[in-house]
Write a structure and sequence with these properties.
Blueprint lengths: L1 E6 L7 H13 L4 E6 L8 H10 L4 E6 L7 H9 L4 E5 L5 H8 L4 H17 L8 E6 L7 H12 L3 E6 L8 H7 L3 H18 L2 E5 L3 H7 L4 H8 L9 E4 L8 H7 L2 E2 L16 E2 H6 L7 E3 L2 E3 L1
Bound molecules: S-adenosylmethionine (SAM).
Amino acid sequence: MSAEVWMDEKKLTDTNLVIKEIEKYSMKWFTSIGFLWWDISIHPWIFEILNSAKNNNFKEISVITNAMVFDDHDKALKLIKSWVTRVNISIHSYKSKVEDYLTQVNWWLLRKLKAIDNFNDLHNKGILKSALAINIVLNWKNYKDIIETCIYFYKEKNIYDMRLNFIWPRYFTSKKDREDLFLKYSDFLSYIKKLIYLSLKLNIRITFDSIPACIFYKIDNKNYKKLVSKFLWESFDKIEEISNINKNLVFDWKKQKKDDLKVKFESCNKCIYNKVCEWVRKEYVEKCWSVEFIAIKNEKWIT
Ligand SMILES: C[S@@+](CC[C@H](N)C(=O)[O-])C[C@H]1O[C@@H](n2cnc3c(N)ncnc32)[C@H](O)[C@@H]1O
């Protein structure tokens, strides 16, 4: 079973709280754990946290990171020697103009590429268990190049595991960012088709997040079931529980994700994917027509 521990994004997450969560999941017989949100790589007690995961019998320990510090090979090695079995690097383009704009840090692309080389080296030497994966946030600035980007990471960096997260506009601080980066499903539709083709042709694992099932129906209304099961909600990444620590409120993240952060339309109730589909982000619906989303039922559109 797999759990994810979300570190608070605004303040340093208390080490004891993280360790307590690790112990809690261990007692519930979880064997896989991931750390995300606030970047664990710059937590001052990162190795105590990872050591606790190892001592609590977690077999798969994964880290999602902006890779800021891992352009240093020794640091990458130290991370992997602390029993981390899988690393995902957040990277959104192979062009420094785009990556550095999106991250607002000069030279970050070059540093991330170096970090990729470091983790690849550790994987090739058998020190890092799983092959390196990348996470791309799909947005207005990078979507037109997305095919070239995936080909670049596959051919130049030997990456064959790519997670494409459709942008969530909630966390942008300025109105301008929100407007500059906002992307519509209808604009991205033709690229999904090309990405599916690329994935099948090159045997790269490409999965999408935050794209509703009915968008896949629009791409191919005959083979959509196969496409949905291969490209959405894959069992490999299945997270059974999410712990959001450092919040005063105890809440059910999965429930909040559906009830508060996402929108379900009347028609969704009639859709065959009603139970599994993660629906559409609220901010998206505020900007776009709900008519983009229609229930899939008995192989026909039901409006
Ligand atoms: C929340 S981040 C945090 C982990 C780590 N600090 C990092 O930067 O990689 C984990 C993943 O969420 C995704 N993500 C971040 N901001 C996003 C946004 N606005 N919309 C959609 N996905 C986003 C990225 O793909 C990232 O790899």
